[in-house]
Amino acid sequence: MLEAAAHWRPFSFCEGWEWTDPTVKKPLSQKTGWPRGIGESPGGIDVKPPPYTFDPDRLDALSRLAIVDTPPERGFDDVVELAVQICQAPVALVSLVSSDRQWFKARSGFEACETDLDSSVCAFALVEPDVLVIADLAQDARTRNNPLVRGEPHIRFYAGAPLRTAEGHVIGSLCVIDDKPRPEGLTESQSGALKSLARQVMAQLELRRAIVARDHALAAQEAQTVRRKASEARYKTLFDAIDDGFCIVEMKFRDEQAVDYRFVEINPAFARQTGLTDAQGRWMREMVPQHEQYWFDVYGRVASTGEAVRFEYQAKGLDDRWFNVHAFRIGRSDAPLVAILFSDESARKQAELDRLGAEDQQRVLNHELSHRMKNTMSLVQAVASQTLKSVPDQTPVKAFSERVLALSVAHDLLLQRNWTAAEFQDVAETVVATFGDAARFDISGPKVTLGSRATLSLSLLLHELTTNAFKYGALSNATGRVTIAWDVSDHKTEPELSLKWDERGGPDVVEPTRKGFGSRLLRIGLVGTGGVQLRYHSTGFEAEFTAGLADLQA
Question: For residue 283, what is the DSSP state?
Answer without folding.
Answer: B
